[in-house]
Write a structure and sequence with these properties.
With 736 residues, the chain is α/β, with parallel strands linked by helices. Helices cover 24% and strands 26% of the residues. The chain is built from 19 helices and 38 strands. The strands form six sheets. It has an eight-stranded parallel β-barrel with strand order 1-2-3-4-5-6-7-11, surrounded by five helices. α1 (13-22) runs parallel beside α9, α5 (124-132) runs parallel beside α6 (146-152) and α9 (245-259) crosses α11. It is globular and about 110 Å long.
């Protein structure tokens, strides 16, 4: 069986130290720019080389995340960053932007590229398409069920699966809520976290409550880990670049213990930072995966009872001096309790200062002292890479120190010749004492061999200097094994101006639209075929979650005279040749997040028209429309989230069953800011849209831009034609 890599998050150096101490095999981290966690501490181009080197001293890998959509104005900077990272010896780069990838993929020999979870790969064909494009590793979307992972595992590429940490409620790469309402794009690493906020939940005018209906618990699959190991998954990923060193140490340690078949502490996993745990949609947990207000996320360590008229609780597990607990009073007040001594399991702990503690209430563990102690103890011992030292001091020769680590050998030599001592000569014990003084260094001598002549004069500072020089040389030589010769990336030439097919198109989100209202449009994009649209120029919009068998789909398209398809997921790229060989035209939809010139160029090689991302800017759309056949949305309710979760399931407790006939398959969410949204449940997925459509002044587009109108109803079409909309699409401001 292939050794399974544990990949740990790093947001600062203390997290890196913790991960190395815990035994993580690899680390993922970001620079100040281009990472999907822009608000983490992150690193700079000025200090990242020493971070990469430090991990390499211990034989660990470093992957840098550049997994955001990259604007045209940032391409040169991104290239300059990756040129330096390549030279510094980084082991891999995580990518989301297909345009950026298309520039660099063939110009950086020996560097591995990983397809980020932001590329929303959740099936075999999506993984295969990106593998065929040259990605060495596929980071599988967190929502992918184990049955599909089983299929993906058969591909001859590396597979990486999230096993622990925070979860987005929306499919990664398909959440626009933060950018739509607040300019902060999740696809740019700047998500404002709208899924962690409170919302009113409404159906047919009735409000069912105000709560955290989108607040996913954290992923924890340790009890199901064997299923992933049996599939030979190459890498188990722990989320958490904005968490603590203690979190990194415990999560890595416990997952390594599980993989090794050792006993691991479930309690410690519960005591590190979390929102409560779920085994996720990956392992088909369809209930109790949302953390609502009042839900308990901390571990219960006892239950209040009355013993001889005194309040007390019996410890359900060992407790330690310094543990910070929480006691709830009869009036619901939450009070802290810090333990002043250790307790064993089943010990009775009296609450003399908490006489109003509520009977039968749980005592919660807020902060466990042993979590911190474990890390501190491990940090004292992990920097002990074994080195062999060979010291030689001969009269009339230079003092020499050879230092060997594994198969790497360095030599430090003094500049002066050794002379005979006039008074007191140095002895072997003194030399050994100075050679052992590695102090804060990462090496520890496992052998010290000393060969000296009798009666030599040698200063102790010379011995210390040789030890320091040899240590520095050894570090340089270890890190040097990973360094690469500099490369200079050449950007491909973009297309020149050419004639374009300018269209006004319409996208039907339902089949409730009167066909007689569609005569003004050139192309009609449909979700499902309806005979009433026969005779129109139809294109089938391949939903990003639509499953299809390619031969059946092509037969369906031909039987119903559907001219073409619209790709919205990388899965569709696996069937380019199938569609083209059958005369089916290809277009690119907005869910493939095309935001820069090089992404337009990439898709133009096989697609007749490319829809811009709704997070693009007017300036960039107009500029690229001079070169490529571009379409821009000008009226729509933008899909804000796409998710397996249904907010109404938190009230119904239905386990996400019976959706097709459920009376709650449509509803509303209202945020604390008054933002109103539509919920639509279809095909066991919930999509969130703004309640009102937004429009854009089409006159601001250059003549070469084709426009697309997206409608749910006849009324939407009338509102578009009458410009009866208040909300504006955000092309003029863009996103940060």
């Amino acid at each position: 069986m292939t050794k399974t890599e544990i990949l740990a998050p790093v947001g600062n150096m203390d997290m890196l130290y913790a991960g190395i101490a815990a035994g993580a095999d690899a680390f993922y981290l970001a620079l100040d720019d281009f990472g999907a966690r822009a608000y983490a501490e992150n690193f700079s181009l000025e200090n990242i080389e020493e971070v990469i080197d430090y991990a390499h001293y211990f034989g660990r890998k470093v992957f840098i995340t550049m997994n955001i959509l990259i604007k045209d104005s940032e391409i040169d900077k991104a290239i300059s960053y990756i040129e330096k990272l390549y030279e510094y010896g980084v082991d891999g780069i995580l990518i989301q932007d297909i345009g950026f990838y298309s520039i660099i993929k063939n110009q950086m020999p020996g560097l591995d590229f990983h397809a980020s979870t932001q590329m929303a790969v959740r099936d075999y064909h999506g993984a295969k398409a990106l593998m065929d494009l040259g990605f060495k590793r596929i980071v599988i979307a967190r929502e992918t069920p184990i049955e599909e992972i089983r299929k993906i595992s058969k591909l001859p590429c590396e597979k990486e699966v999230f096993v622990h940490g925070s979860l987005c409620v929306s499919y990664s790469g398909e959440c626009l809520m933060s950018s739509y309402f607040g300019e902060r794009s999740a696809n740019r690493g700047r998500c404002a976290g709208p899924c962690r906020q409170k919302y009113q939940l409404i159906n047919n005018g009735k409000t069912y409550g105000t709560d955290y209906y989108l607040n996913m618990k954290d992923l924890n699959v340790i009890d199901e880990l064997d299923q992933l190991l049996e599939l030979g998954i190459d890498c188990l990923k722990i989320e958490g670049r904005m968490k603590s060193p203690e979190y990194v140490y415990q999560s890595v340690s416990i997952y390594k213990e599980k993989i090794s078949g050792k006993i691991y502490s479930v309690d410690k996993l519960r005591d590190i930072s979390n929102r409560g745990y779920t085994k996720g949609f990956i392992f088909d947990q369809k209930r109790d995966y949302i953390l609502k207000e009042g839900d308990i996320k901390h571990r219960v360590v006892g239950k209040v009872e009355k013993i001889n008229d005194k309040k007390a609780f019996r410890a359900l597990s060992p407790l330690h001096k310094g543990d910070n607990l929480e006691v709830v009073t009869e009036k619901g007040k939450k009070l802290p309790l810090t333990l002043t001594e250790d307790f064993n399991k089943d010990d009775l702990i009296f609450l003399d200062k908490y006489k109003d503690a509520r009977i039968e209430s749980g005592i919660l563990m807020l902060n466990a002292e042993n979590i911190k102690n474990d890390l501190e103890n491990s940090l004292q011992s992990y920097t002990n890479l074994p080195v062999k030292l060979y010291f030689e001091g001969r009269l009339g020769m230079k003092a020499r120190l050879r230092m060997i680590y594994k198969d790497i050998e360095v030599l430090a030599e003094d500049s002066s010749l050794i002379e005979a001592s006039q008074n007191i000569s140095i002895d072997e014990a003194s030399i050994r004492d100075n050679l052992e003084r590695f102090n804060d260094e990462i090496f520890t001598p496992c052998l010290i061999d000393i060969k000296i002549d009798d009666g030599i004069f040698l200063r102790k500072k010379t011995i210390n200097k040789l030890r320091r020089e040899a240590t520095a040389l050894l570090k340089t030589k270890i890190a040097g094994k990973y360094k690469r010769k500099p490369v200079k990336i050449t950007k491909p030439r973009l297309a020149s101006q050419s004639s374009k097919s300018i269209e006004k198109n319409v996208e039907l989100m339902t089949n409730d639209i009167d066909s007689s209202l569609l005569s003004d449009f050139d192309k009609v994009y449909i979700k499902d075929y309806d005979p009433k649209y026969e005779g129109l120029s139809l294109y089938l919009n391949l939903d990003s979650h639509m499953d299809y068998e390619i031969n059946e789909l092509i037969s369906f398209l031909k039987e119903n005279s559907i001219e073409g398809v619209i790709f919205n997921n990388y899965r569709d790229l696996d069937f380019i040749d199938d569609f083209k060989s059958n005369g089916i035209k290809i277009r690119i939809g907005r869910y493939l997040n095309v935001i820069n010139s090089y992404a337009f160029k990439f898709y133009s090689t096989f697609a007749e028209k490319i829809e811009s991302s709704v997070e693009n800017t007017l300036e960039n759309i107009n500029k690229n429309a001079k070169r490529y056949n571009i379409e821009a949305l000008s009226f729509a309710r933008i899909e804000l989230m796409n998710m397996v979760h249904c907010p109404f399931s938190t009230i119904k407790k239905c386990g996400l069953k019976g959706c097709p006939t459920c009376k709650f398959n449509q509803g509303e969410l209202v945020s604390g800011n008054g933002d109103r949204m539509k919920l639509v449940r279809r095909d066991y997925l919930t999509k969130i849209y703004p309640y009102h459509p937004a429009g854009f002044n089409e006159n601001l587009f250059v003549d070469e831009v084709s426009t697309l109108v997206s409608v749910f109803s006849d009324q939407d079409l009338k509102d578009y034609k009458n410009k009866a909309y208040k909300d504006k699409l955000n092309y003029e401001r863009g996103v940060i």
